[in-house]
Amino acid sequence: MKTTRRKEQMFHEYFKDWVNLYKVGAIRSITLQKYYVTEQKLQELVPNLKLKELNRNSYQKLLNDYALTHEKQTTMDFHHHLKGAILDAVDEGIITQNPARKIVIKGKTPRPKKAKFLNQFEVQALLKELNLAEDINWDWFILLVIKTGLRFSEALALTPSDFDFSKQKIIISKTWDYKNANGSFQPTKNESSKRKIQIDWQLAMQFSQLIRIKEQDKPIFIKSRVFNSTINNRLKVLCNRSNIPVITVHSLRHTHASLLLFAGVSIASVANRLGHSSMTTTQETYLHVIQELENQDNDKIIRHLSMLI
């Protein structure tokens, strides 16, 4: 009887209940917010679609309608959110067959991609434009992310107590919830994100002077509410002055990883330094760099083998 009633339930209502049951308290607030956005979009696109009416055709139509205004990757993310609830509905016997099986992901034409990372010469040009004053400013933040590959929220959360200058390491154990007006410390993205990052002696010396009189448990970069657009705007000014491609603060993280890979650092070490949960993530994110390095390795292999006569 209960299953029969659930079949009459609207799909967006079931999804909302599913999120409250399985996601609230189990995932980070920033991730949970994405599920809420999915629920709102679901209610907007199919307000009257009942669970019993959910089949391959109706589900594919839903994805197609979503894809009209979203790029392919965003449509894939939307599908992955819904798929979890759908599979549970199948397990509960509310839906007899999986409507998400063999679906086709579509999407509108992607916007022209901005530069994802800088090369070594562009980084050097950017560094020359930094205004590294005696007190903490956003140029110091940019330098730090270039040299560590920290996520934006991880760098914002740094306090003086996170620096171990004797071992030249930075301890990453939290993030800063900059999207909240009040701001607060939050857990890291995942367990792998908790890590210690080795820094060079010069950066260690610079920051030991910068933070020597700062409160030990207060974020060194936070003075008021922070928006990533603030740092991105500063970066834009610096990039234009340097006559290099305009990038975002997240691209500084990509730049750091790319420089390490081109320098011959192993994928495993780069993955650990970035706080990736697996090397697969690193390989997929930096596939273009890895392929270029493989081409260089192939040239070395052929040159070496040709000498074996």
From TrEMBL:
Superkingdom, taxonomy of origin: Bacteria
Domain Tyr recombinase: residue ranges: 113-303
One BP annotation, GO: DNA integration
Regions that span the bilayer: none
GO molecular function ontology, one term from the record: DNA binding
Alphabetical UniProt keywords: DNA recombination, DNA-binding
Family from the record: Belongs to the 'phage' integrase family.
Protein name: Site-specific integrase
Species this protein is from: Listeria weihenstephanensis
